[in-house]
Amino acid sequence: MKKLMMICVSIVMLSSVKASEPIQPIVAEKSINQAQAELGKKLYFDPRLSKSGFISCYSCHNLSMGGTDNLKTSIGHNWHQGPINAPTVLNSSFNIAQFWDGRAKDLQEQAGGPIANPGEMAFTHELAVHLLGTIPAYVNEFKQAFGTEKIDIDKVTKAIAEFEKTLTTPNSRFDQWLLGNKSAISQTELEGYQLFKNSGCVACHNGPAVGANSFQKMGLVKPYQTDNQAEGRIAVTGKDSDRFVFKVPTLRNVELTYPYFHDGGAETLAEAVDIMGQLQLGRKFTATENAKIVAFLKTLTGEQPKFMLPILPPSSYHTPRPQPFK
Ligand code: HEC
Ligand code: HEC
Questions:
Q1: How far apart are CA 286 and CA 164, in angstroms?
Q2: What is the per-residue DSSP string for 196-246?
Q3: Phi, psi at 268, each rounded to 5°
Q4: Which of 50, 114, 207, 259 could bridge across to 55 with cysteines, CB 3.0–4.6 Å?
Q5: Average per-residue pLDDT for the chain
Q6: Domains (range + CATH), the chain
Q7: Which residues are designated catalytic?
Q8: Cα–Cα distance between 135 and 141 in angstroms, integer?
Q9: 292 lines ligand 2 (CB under 6 A)
Q10: Distance from the CA of 304 to the center of ligand 1, in angstroms?
Q11: At what angle do helices 107-116 and 125-133 cross, to 10 degrees?
């Protein structure tokens, strides 16, 4: 009886930890269509979906580097200088919408964008679909995954999106702490979390992704200085009040996803935290406070996706050849 009561008490304590915190643990997506995700993994790594035959999703969303390219802004076709910082694909299924301005409603809609973007993969949907159709092993795999012979762009983007749903990063030290393991984070990291919570960062960075669930103004208290042309959500809504409103980025794995902000303007976490404090909250953190928050943010690095590198099916005689310098 006593034992039972103790179990009950610990269950209550465990659930109260979770319920009272503004951040929840990341839970891996369970409903994955495995055949589509396996196909999507190949497509994600396949540079033949670009005009150059050299650029894949992986080029800019490198899974060895937190799902980003660690560049201020990305490099696209013909060394094109990208206009904006590449966000991580890790945990992107938690995003309220895709892109900094939220112009794609979900991962499938997003995945069609870069293939046809002249400054990214510089291909067209028609050419991509045609190309895949010349590779017998792909034709077979599409048939297995979707039950029909016909390849079209919807199936291509559906498969990629299904793969991206597998890119969650559970079991970070902070999540272990949320689930009741008090020794999973240090005293300094805990104090960093308390500062993060009590000074108001959680107003925008909350939920399982520690962000990604709302659009907010960048430069709420003081304006943000940048040469970058992006104006955020106004591009989608046309509303003046949405000027400089961006999707709040996830802070999961933020230790790995530098540089920070839509313009890649902050090189380090310390700098990003300092700017956030001043511009969003009107608060200048001391060096010690800043270091504590940074220490907390590093506890959000979770288990990175683990899988074998996919081996891509070879081109056939009919497969259009890469055009890297056109
Ligand atoms: C040349 C670099 C480049 C390539 C190639 C590329 N991306 Fe991106 N990706 C970006 C940039 C830059 C953004 C942000 C664009 C914006 O918000 O306007 C982005 C945004 C995204 C987002 C939205 C994430 C978020 O938090 O809003 C996802 C998901 C994504 N890309 C997946 C893909 C997939 C899938 C492919 C391959 C089909 C791909 N990307 C190819 C650079 C690239
Ligand atoms: C009013 C909402 C709001 C508050 C409060 C807020 N943030 Fe942010 N945060 C944002 C937005 C919006 C961005 C993206 C801004 C951009 O890229 O221009 C962002 C970006 C960040 C980034 C960069 C992430 C990346 O991948 O680029 C970090 C780190 C960050 N915030 C930490 C904090 C910390 C720490 C606090 C508290 C001191 C805080 N934020 C308070 C809205 C907020």
A1: 39
A2: HHHTTGGGTS-TTTTS-S-EEESSSSSPPP------BTHHHH--GGGTTEE
A3: -125, 160
A4: 50
A5: 94
A6: 34-164 (1.10.760.10), 173-298 (1.10.760.10)
A7: 120
A8: 10
A9: no
A10: 19
A11: 90
Scanning the structure block, which residue is given the tokens 């016909």?
150
Which pairs with CB-CB distance under 8 Å and at least 24 residues apart come from 14-21?
Answer: 14/179, 14/180, 17/178, 17/179, 17/180, 18/178, 18/179, 21/178
Closest protein CA for atom 19 of ligand 2: 248
Q: State which of 39, 85, 106, 120 you would mutate to test the pocket of ligand 1, scoring each by most atoms of that ligand within 8 A of its C-beta.
A: 120
In terms of phi and psi (left: phi > 0; alpha: psi -120 to 50; beta: otherwise), the region of 129 is: alpha
Helix (H, G, I), strand (E, B) or coil at 267: coil
- Separation of CA 95 and ligand 1 centre (Å): 13
Could you tell me if 29 and 168 are in contact, meaning their C-beta atoms sit under 8 angstroms apart? yes
- Cα–Cα distance for residue pair 152/150, rounded to 1 Å: 6
More confident of the two residues 9 and 70: 70
Residue 149's pLDDT band (boundaries 50, 70, 90)?
confident
Considering only CA atoms, which of 99, 91, 97 is closest in space to residue 63?
91
- Which listed ligand is nearest to 167 at the C-alpha? 1
Q: Which of 195, 62, 74 is nearest to 205 (CA)?
A: 195
Q: How far is CA 7 from CA 4, 14, 175, in A?
A: 5, 10, 21
Task: Work out the pLDDT band at 57, boundaries 50, 70, 90.
Answer: very high
Question: Per-residue pLDDT for 18 more than 80?
Answer: no
pLDDT tens-digit readout, 129-144: 999 999 999 999 999 9
Contact criterion met (CB below 8 Å) for 58 and 45: yes
Task: Provide mean pLDDT across the span 68-89.
Answer: 97
* Cβ(293) – ligand 2 distance below 6 Å: yes
As a whole number of angstroms, the distance between CA 40 and CA 109 comes to: 14
Burial of 235 (0-12, 13-18, 19+ CB in 10 A): middle
pTM above 0.90, yes or no: yes
